[in-house]
Design a protein that fits this description.
Layout (H helix, E strand, L loop, with lengths): L1 H32 L5 E7 L2 E6 L5 E8 L2 E6 L5 E5 L7 E8 L8 E5 L3 E2 L1 E2 L1 E4 L15 E9 L2 E10 L5 E13 L2 E15 L3 E10 L14 E6 L9 E2 L1
């Protein structure tokens, strides 16, 4: 009788372990199928944030949470959100996809993105400011950073003077800022003082009034077009987050 009880006990233990194992295997398989979105959050103001997240395969929609509170459910084509509420700029957010594959009667919620707090509404650019003495007469403007506060865009860059004489001023510095394909700010500076030494680089900071309340940090596509005289330059966008 004791031997029978021991066999029964070990049988139950093995069944429980098998259940746990297959439970984990099922969970892992689900995790592989249901991907978590990658979320980026921008602090636009103390009461407003912008969000952009990566699309998830088989998503029937997305749920957006402020902390653990659901604040919005959107359709599968939407991967951005501007959210305005008291204290929104200091909160943390996360997103989960609603997954619905063939044969599923109802969508199920996938895993959450990593909780994110809003970052500064600015972009940094990768452009060399190394002087090239071979290109005589070449003095381009190289942007390094654009930040947005309220409706003011602060653009920081360098005049890179490849010439053998001092660069006193740009006759024209024409700047156009874009956000998701739309012009949000533009200004043409005339006779802008530079005073950059021969074969040198000089930091320049200018401010432009434009459209505020946009998520410039998460903007897609080209974000800046600039042209200068005496040298005209049209350079494609090269930016990092």
């Amino acid at each position: 009788m004791m031997k029978y009880k021991k066999i029964m006990t070990w049988t139950i233990v093995l069944m429980l372990l098998a259940g746990v194992f297959f439970g984990f295997a099922k969970q892992d398989a689900s995790a592989a199928v249901y991907a978590a979105p990658n979320l980026s959050v921008t602090k636009i103001s103390k009461n407003k944030v912008g969000m952009r997240w990566s699309a998830v395969a088989n998503a029937a929609g997305y749920k957006i949470f402020k902390g653990n509170k659901l604040i919005k459910t959107v359709g599968p084509a939407q991967t951005t959100l501007l959210y305005k509420n008291k204290g929104a700029g200091s909160a943390k957010y996360k997103v989960a996809a609603l997954i619905q594959t063939a044969g599923m009667a109802n969508p199920v919620q996938g895993p959450f993105s990593k909780a994110q707090k809003g970052k500064k509404n600015e972009r940094h650019y990768v452009h060399s400011i190394k002087v090239n003495t071979v290109t005589y007469g070449y003095a381009p403007f190289r942007v390094k950073k654009i930040s947005l506060s309220g409706n003011t865009y602060t653009i920081t860059g360098h005049c890179v003077n490849n010439r053998l004489f001092k660069m006193k001023k740009y006759k024209v510095l024409d700047l156009t800022v874009y956000c998701d394909g739309k012009v949000t700010a533009h200004k043409k500076f005339k006779n802008l003082t530079v005073n950059c030494k021969a074969y040198g680089a000089k930091k320049i900071t200018v401010k432009i009034k434009g459209k505020g309340g946009v998520d410039f940090r998460n903007a897609q596509g080209k974000t800046l077009h600039w042209a200068v005289q005496p040298y005209w330059e049209f350079v494609g966008n090269k930016s990092v987050k």
